[in-house]
Recover the amino acids of this structure.
């Protein structure tokens, strides 16, 4: 499990494989917790949990559990099926609750622990967090921003009985998600000459419409914008870390030097020449 600590938050990104009937325990530290599964299905329960001995909960993707833990406790889990398990878990440190949520955030805390509130959650946002890549400082910032977005989504949903307005996230099965990750890998394999969307869709077994909608829901941007941003990120790395000239970096990622400077400045907020000076 990967852990990132920033801005009063602990962010846990979990991926593994489990077998039906497998049991494990984890220690839940004090704080305001949010947990959601992106893949897998488990039963969570135990007499020491905040529910105070409530019946075990069958936990699957599509909802998030939010609860307050005044004291640490042990949480027990049992896998209900073989396969992959993935999830995102957030802990707001006790001293940071008011800083992040304001004085009204105190109503989410109190006592030994409240029963977990289960509210709908955007699977696209959860998978996006699990798929964030890039240079360490930028990735840390993107993860922190996404974690705060997810926390805000869950707190808001809990206060409105789970009702939200806005466009619905397309339903993605585990197989769809796997295909979308395969599509992203194909794009990253050759940023200078990525396949057109119809060819990419055929390569991973999706139709072009589902690929386009699913890609944006899962990774936060359309295919074209994803490729453009990754090209420019890679170009900056080539200039700063490998010492390539501006023209060499531009050609390497599929840009002509004539159009590269404007796109680079829009993406990074500085001209390519300034990146050369950071070597």
């Amino acid at each position: 499990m990967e852990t990132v600590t920033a801005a009063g938050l602990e962010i846990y990104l979990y991926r593994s494989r489990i077998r039906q009937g497998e049991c494990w325990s984890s220690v839940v530290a004090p704080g305001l917790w949010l947990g959601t599964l992106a893949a897998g299905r488990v039963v969570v329960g135990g007499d020491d949990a905040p529910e105070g001995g409530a019946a075990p909960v069958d936990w699957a993707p599509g909802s998030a559990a939010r609860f307050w833990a005044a004291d640490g406790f042990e949480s027990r889990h049992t896998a209900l099926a073989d396969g992959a398990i993935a999830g995102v878990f957030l802990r707001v440190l006790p001293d940071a609750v008011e800083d992040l949520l304001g004085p009204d955030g105190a109503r989410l805390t109190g006592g030994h622990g409240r029963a977990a509130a289960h509210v709908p959650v955007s699977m696209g946002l959860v998978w996006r967090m699990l798929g964030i890549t890039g240079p360490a400082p930028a990735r840390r910032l993107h993860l922190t921003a996404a974690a705060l977005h997810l926390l805000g989504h869950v707190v808001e949903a809990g206060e409105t009985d789970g009702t939200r307005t806005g466009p619905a996230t397309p339903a993605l099965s585990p197989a769809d998600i796997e295909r979308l990750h395969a599509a992203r890998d194909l794009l990253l394999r050759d940023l200078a000459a990525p396949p057109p969307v119809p060819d990419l869709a055929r390569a991973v077994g999706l139709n072009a419409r589902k690929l386009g909608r699913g890609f944006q829901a899962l990774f936060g941007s359309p295919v074209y914008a994803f490729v453009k941003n990754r090209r420019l990120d890679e170009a900056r790395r080539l200039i700063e870390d490998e010492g390539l000239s501006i023209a060499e970096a531009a050609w390497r990622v599929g840009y002509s030097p004539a159009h590269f400077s404007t796109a680079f400045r829009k993406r990074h907020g500085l001209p390519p020449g300034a990146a050369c000076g950071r070597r």
